[in-house]
Amino acid sequence: MSEVISYEKIGDIAVLAANNPPVNALGLAVRQGLVDGIERAEKEGARAVLIYGEGRTFFAGADIREFGKPPVGPFLPDVCSRIESSPLIVVSALHGTALGGGLEIALASHYRIAVPKARMGLPEVLIGVMPGAGGTQRLPRLIGIDKSLDVITSGRQVGAKEALKLGILDKIVDGEPREIGLAYAQELIDANAPRRPVSEMPAPAPVDFDALYDAVLKKGRGLLAPAVAVRGIQACCELPFDEGMKRERELFAQLMNTDQRQGLIHAFFAERAVGKLPELEGVAPRALNAIGVIGGGTMGAGIATSALLSGLKITLIEMSPKAAEAAKGRIAGNLQGALKRGKISPETFEELTEKALTLATDYAALKDADLVIEAVFEEMSVKKDVFTKLDAICKPGAVLASNTSYLDINEIAAVTSRPADVIGLHFFSPAHVMKLLEIVVADKTAADVVATGFALGGKMGKVSVRAGVCDGFIGNRILSTYRTCADYMILDGASPYQIDKALEEFGFAMGPYAVADLAGLDIGWAVRKRKRAEGMNPQARDFTYADKLCEDGHFGQKTGMGYYDYSAGPKSRVPNPEVMPLIEADRAAQGITPRVFTDEEIVRRYMAAMVNEAAKVVGEGIAKRPLDVDVTLLYGYGFPRYRGGPLKWADMQGLPALLDDITSWAEADGYFWAPAPLLEQLVAEGRSFDDLNRD
Ligand code: COA
């Protein structure tokens, strides 16, 4: 008998238990084991079959690692058919997460029972495919079009209680899946309950599926899978079951061949790989009981909010009692949001603001802290002053972290007597919302301090990426380059509005100029002033239109005017009429004759600039692997997930053609477009960025 599906006969019930850790994914051996188990149950005269999972979950889906490889039978749809067509009563007992193919196995069973904490869903669209083993054919028969449309096109997980209400489950019982499943199967045998194949239930009457398809496609901003899944539900309503199954398989195969599927699966595995670093193997993190935050501005308050929400106790230091009260107000405001969305109860709100949060003005309050995050003004002298004080007060072994977004952590660490304890923890604003955390490792940072950074990120529900020290680390350094590329395209003839539109069509949630308006144009202005003061490379092009916009008091959304005019509300986004004349004056002053850019060229240049800088970041070891860059851009910069990240995108485009473009643009601007040595090397060796991920 199969090792991953064990067989046992208890009275009239054949018990098939999955044992394929960690998540009982439905790989080949599991599929074969299920078919063998059903056959044996029939041969041995069982009256019912119980299917359940050992360990943490029922089947969590198809084995994603098999995707893209030549398929080997028995295929999952056939396994489901075999289960459903068995003359015995088949019961699935669910716990953990019954996802994708897992839920499809349950839908092919005749009865479904779950523990109260079980969650289920059809998340295939989130990895660029759709249910392919009857999910789109059985679910609408069971729960109707509207509800299955929601479950299938969102890919969301449904809790047991909701699933019972929806009609996915027959019963919820607390206990072990094996015990509740056995009791339910016996109950069904005793009641002489009939087999109940979902495929034999009537399908819902068809609706206007073209309109549904268009609406879902639009909502997905370029994501194909949910819209294609609508066609599967359509097949359920318009075709006999067997033909619907065939149609579902065709649609599934279409999606399997898309770049979007590759991109989304890359993202799935990349976000799980970011925390797996050889330097952390076997290294235990330090304690994380008492956390200090210095500075209660937007950033500090956001970090404190996020930490409080993850159950950590926080001591927040501000300069005066008044500033401390203001910080508390900001944190309470953030937590109000969580309260309104039902994420916390009024009691928890009270507990977090009144008990878990301590405010202080004296650094002495940090003497017992395990980890302190500084989030004060972004200025080296201010940071050095804070770290000198922390060095004097904090207990030995405390981790001292800076939330700087570009300053040199080595220089900050050097003012302390314990540089091994110093690290960068770069949160993204608003810190209680944004999932990305860059863990910036300085020259002398100890391995267990890095591990502590990852442990904190994990506790706070962040996606943590290791970065090395340089101006802007991984994300902001790459951002600065592709933003510059966009600014140059404006000088040469594109408009901010065309650029935003082209990149939004590419899949970014917002174009770079809409983002700049949201973040505040004063940020970029300060950076340009700093860079000019430090002395810019004479070969770098410069421009003034953006400064003039700021000089006129237009800082973006917060002043009601930036690249766009927001007088009719933050979403109105009407181009600000002052912008184009400023740009035209700048072009004229620099003797530039504007030319026409196609949307395609805008995307190509913007992406090439991003990839080229990313290749430098990887080549210099600032990011350890290409996937670290991909995850950074996905979680911190609104990069479209279905494109996998910039370096996965580059691989799929083909690196030689990309390098050719960069080299040709370098003829006009050799400084900006200097090709990354790593990109040249990969092209010369005929390798891809993903090859480096696998090394
Ligand atoms: N196929 C292959 N491997 C899978 C998998 C799948 N369907 N689902 C999870 N895994 C692997 C993960 O890569 C991870 O491997 P690692 O330990 O080597 O990194 C391990 O199982 C644990 O997964 P992880 O996500 O870290 O655990 P979790 O408890 O946070 O979440 C799930 C568990 C099942 C909710 C989550 O992994 C998930 O959503 N999986 C995808 C489910 C899915 O899309 N199924 C439909 C496929 S058609």
Model description:
The chain has 695 residues and is of the alpha/beta class. The strands form 4 sheets. It has an 8-stranded mixed sheet, sandwiched between helices. The chain has a 6-stranded mixed sheet with strand order 1-2-3-4-6-9, with helices on both faces. A 3-stranded mixed sheet has the order 5-7-8. A hairpin with a 2-residue loop joins β1 (5-10) and β2 (13-18). It binds coenzyme A.
Which properties best describe this structure?
binds coenzyme A; 8-stranded mixed sheet; alpha/beta; globular; 29 helices; Rossmann fold; N-(1-d-carboxylethyl)-l-norvaline Dehydrogenase, domain 2; 2-enoyl-CoA Hydratase, Chain A, domain 1; 6-stranded mixed sheet; single chain; 695 residues
Tell me the layout of helices and strands.
Blueprint (H helix, E strand, L loop, with lengths): L4 E6 L2 E6 L9 H16 L4 E6 L22 H9 L4 E6 L2 E3 L1 H8 L2 E4 L4 E3 L13 H9 L1 H10 L3 E2 H7 L4 E2 L4 H14 L18 H11 L5 H14 L2 H16 L2 H15 L16 E5 L3 H12 L3 E5 L3 H20 L5 H11 E4 L10 E4 L5 H14 L5 E4 L6 H5 L8 E6 L8 E6 L5 H13 L3 E6 L6 H18 L3 H11 L5 H8 L1 H14 L10 H7 L12 E2 L8 E2 L3 H11 L9 H21 L6 H11 L9 H8 L1 H12 L10 H9 L3 H6 L1
Helix pairs in contact: 1-2, 2-3, 4-5, 4-9, 5-9, 8-9, 9-10, 11-25, 12-13, 18-24, 19-24, 22-23, 24-27
The structure holds coenzyme A.
The site of coenzyme A has 17 residues, from β5.
Pathway: Lipid metabolism; fatty acid beta-oxidation
Pfam family, one: ECH_1
Catalytic activity: a (3S)-3-hydroxyacyl-CoA + NAD(+) = a 3-oxoacyl-CoA + NADH + H(+)
